[in-house]
Design brief:
This protein has 263 residues and is an alpha/beta fold. Helix content is 29%, strand content 22%. β2, α2 and β3 form a beta-alpha-beta unit. α3 packs across α4. It starts with 5 loop residues before the first strand and ends with a strand. The structure holds S-adenosyl-L-homocysteine. The site of S-adenosyl-L-homocysteine has 24 residues, from α5, β8 and β10.
């Protein structure tokens, strides 16, 4: 009987290959099979041996060529055949990545699993823009939420808990529903002028940023047409954007959408 292989659930980070961990690079170099999401760049996939088989299982809103159950099966089949499998996921595998679901499936079938952490989009967007997730006097904590709705269902978010002016709110997968999210937060008492930063394709050469405020973000996003993936940071910390002085920040907020190319 073939000795079973192993599956490494690897965080590929936000895009820039320099933001991979050393462990991710070393593990990729040993891979015999690479099963990767659409968000992972060719440059990163190319860190695996040329002989490694590459299996794209692209995931994007309304684009699901390979259902999750099938991904689980592919990972299981490859590991059962005795191979070292690199399961590459954008950001960190344990933040909105379904990494733990894949691991549970493999572990239930006796396959060894190891996680390799990655830099999640929130950390990447923060460092790329200079907006801190916490800052003394501005935010004592941070909450990560998904703005994605399952087909036919409403947004399952606790607006009361999220509408906390002392906490930074980071919204993953929020483009389609940012209008509803903004209304939910304002209804529970967050000021209309609460600043919002949207960062598209953070840390890639195509990075774009937009600074807006709760009552305008939906319209500004529509107008700017940022392309996925987009992350939102909502809260007072956005006032630190690019270390702008307060007066400049106010001017930014008052003007039309501000889309700045990453220089
Ligand atoms: N596991 C990933 C998140 C997967 S969910 C992580 O830890 O980052 C996909 C969402 O992540 C996207 O809708 C977007 O909100 C965010 N995202 C991932 N990469 C991003 C990037 N480079 N720039 C901006 N947002 C990103």
């Amino acid at each position: 009987m073939t000795k079973p292989g192993k599956v490494f659930l690897i965080g590929a980070g936000p895009g820039d290959p320099e933001l991979l961990t050393l462990r991710a690079v070393r593990t990729l170099a040993q891979a015999e099979v690479v099963v990767h999401d659409r968000l992972v760049s060719d440059e990163i996939i190319a860190l695996s041996p040329e002989t490694a088989r590459r299996i794209p299982v692209g995931k994007a809103p309304s684009f699901h060529p390979v259902p999750q159950e099938r991904i689980n099966e592919i990972l299981l089949e490859e590991a059962r055949a005795g191979r070292i499998v690199a399961r590459l996921k954008g950001g960190d595998p344990l933040i909105f990545g379904r990494g733990s679901e894949e691991a549970a499936h493999l572990l239930a079938h006796g396959i060894a699993v190891e996680y390799v952490p990655g830099i999640t989009a929130a950390q990447a967007a923060a460092s790329a823009t200079g907006v801190p997730l916490t800052h003394r006097g501005l935010a004592t904590g941070v909450q990560y939420v998904t703005g994605h709705r399952q087909a036919g269902k409403g947004l399952d978010l606790d607006w009361k808990r999220l509408a906390d002016p002392d906490t930074t709110l980071v919204v993953y997968m929020g483009v389609a529903n940012i209008g509803r999210i903004a209304v939910g937060l304002m209804t529970e008492g967050l000021p209309e002028s609460t600043p919002v930063l949207a960062v598209a394709q953070a840390t890639t050469p195509r990075e774009r940023r937009l600074v807006s405020r709760l009552d305008r973000i939906a319209a500004d996003i529509r107008e700017a047409g940022l392309s996925a993936p987009v992350l939102f940071i909502i809260g007072r910390v956005v006032s630190q954007y690019a270390h702008l002085p307060a007066a400049q920040m106010a001017a930014d907020l008052a003007s039309a959408p501000r889309v700045a190319a990453h220089a």
